[in-house]
Amino acid sequence: MTDSQLIREIKDGNVQLYDELMRRYERKILAFIFHMLKSAQMESMAEDLCNETFYKAYRSLHSFREVEATFSTWLYTIARNTVLSELRKNKNMKVSLEESGYQPQTSHETLPEQTVLRNEKVSLVRDAINNLPEKQRSALILREYDQLDYQEIANILGQTVSSVKSLLFRARASVKLQLEPYFLEPIFEEYEGMNRR
Description:
Blueprint: H1 3-11, H2 18-38, H3 46-60, H4 71-89, H5 112-130, H6 134-145, H7 150-157, H8 161-196
Helix pairs in contact: 2-3, 2-4, 3-4, 4-7, 5-8, 6-7, 6-8, 7-8
């Protein structure tokens, strides 16, 4: 059953099918909310805000019109607005990328030093993303982590597609600039060493 079919059934009174819609999106919405709460150190609220998102979506399902957006886009928008509202209440507007529980997979042959370096690189990337302005951060999370297309991101953020592309360009450039000192220094040192030989 597609999302559209489920929504029609739910609107017609078959409300127990809402559980199926929740199952389809719960993990992604929870991860997205967790990302947004990370820099404010409010990750513990992610599950509550996820539940609140699904509750708000259920209460407003009668007003959802597929012509305007897909269900997932509409749901991400509700999630984002719920988080931003909570952050405003806590007077902490720095919204960020979450650590989604991802741990780099290592093979048995990997040296402990390589594992430490890989974990450090992952941490540096997360910190760089957390330092982005809220809209750039949200756009980058939705594109790179949730794999949404430009139009969906534009709908969620209330922007045009060209604005989303601009946000992503600036976000990627900023992350690259923040990370250059960590990833380029050893290369320059090696290069200078070769020139002295």
